[in-house]
Amino acid sequence: MALECVVNISEGRRQDLLDGFADRLRRHPGAHLLHQDRGWDANRTVFTLAGNSEGLVQALTTLASDCLEHLDMRSQSGIHPRIGALDVCPIVPLDPASEGEAHRTVAALADAFAELGIGGWFYAQSAVQPGFDLLANVRKGDYEGVSARANTFDFGQYQARFGAMALGVRPFLLAYNINVTGLDLEQVKQVAKNVRESSPGGLPGLRAIGWDTPEFGCMQVSCNIVDLNRCTPKQLFERITSEVALLGGQTMGSELIGLAPSHAFRDFASDAEAMNFLGLSSVVPFDPSDRILERVLQKHR
User: Fold this and answer.
1) How far is CA 168 from CA 47, 88, 242, in A?
2) Per-residue pLDDT tens over the stretch 135-178
């Protein structure tokens, strides 16, 4: 398994539909469904797959076809930024030698998606338009703004039902949300602004937004750690705990989205220490054997 794909779709509420999507993903040789992470308030599901190029192209083409048939962005809503039904499709090399295969996979996927009559933009290491190395720039205007920008698609065609996607090669990224109580939404958004890399004194390699998650009975600072060599969950959790305390609130654990490489938790001596310090089971159960990437990959070898 040379490649990982952490594909995000804009549906997190219809469990029967999502189970059907997952079942069809499992039918493709050469692609292994490692994890499924569903968010009600975000109205979003993250499927983590690993495999070879041919297997991933087949599996993801099936998923895109399912999204085109069953999802309609014209009536979709949720707290997560989005531009389309199959919203983000990152291809991640599992080792440096696989980078060429990752780029070939992105090219093959663009052709396959175009044949389905859907399209979007290349992003991250595959970006061809200025600024599209940053996903936030690809998503400017959200789904509601896609129709006015569709003439700039890098591949495929625009369908209002589907919207657009961001497709590209990128390195490991950790999606990680920290739960906050005792503050209002504007304060949580301010905390997110304070800690993100783009702000003075922000943490390196960090993207962050604030949102309300009624499903969990709290607010969250929703984070993407895009460089785990410069920022770890422990460093982030400590910083946000401090920022929240200054405003009179408190953190109540955190939530990992998808899988994490073991390197992310190098600040801790054991799984138990990481789970206790970060409160990783505070809103959904956390089992390291099912959430640490290397351990999950080993089960599928």
Assistant:
1) 16, 9, 35
2) 999 999 999 999 999 999 999 999 999 999 999 999 999 999 99
Each residue of 208-218: pLDDT tens digit?
999 999 999 99
pTM metric for this prediction: 0.94
Fold type of domain 174-299: Alpha-Beta Plaits (3.30.70)
Calculate the average pLDDT of the chain.
97
Taking a C-beta distance cutoff of 8 angstroms, is the pair 10, 85 a contact?
yes
Instruction: Give tens-digit pLDDT for 54-70.
Output: 999 999 999 999 999 99
The residue whose two tokens read 């495999």 is 51
Phi, psi values for residue 191, rounded to 5°: -60, -45
Domain ranges of the chain: 3-169, 174-299
Question: What is the CATH superfamily name and number for domain 3-169?
Answer: Formiminotransferase, N-terminal subdomain (3.30.990.10)
